[in-house]
Write a structure and sequence with these properties.
The chain is an all-alpha fold and 74 residues long. The chain contains four helices and no strands. The protein is extended. The N and C termini lie far apart (37 Å).
Length: 74
């Protein structure tokens, strides 16, 4: 699998890997695993799918979704 990132993100990823003593593959794998385990609401927010006029409401939507998820697990 290949990913495409802007140069500044590539540099920050390299810095992160160096600080944590991890490979880039390990870091990106964990990030992808985390993202895919999130609710669709959180995934859409992280991926920037919501339209501009809705972004101000995204935090509230995510909080409501997290509360629902937490209640289901309890």
């Amino acid at each position: 699998m290949r990913i495409e990132v802007v140069p500044s993100a590539r540099d920050e990823l390299a810095n992160l890997c160096e600080r944590r003593g991890m490979t880039q593959v390990a870091v990106v794998s964990r990030a992808v695993e985390w993202l895919t385990n999130q609710s669709e609401v959180v995934q859409a927010a992280i991926l920037g799918i919501y339209p501009g006029d809705m972004r101000s409401k995204v935090a509230e939507i995510i909080l409501q979704d997290l509360v629902k998820t937490r209640k289901k697990k309890s």
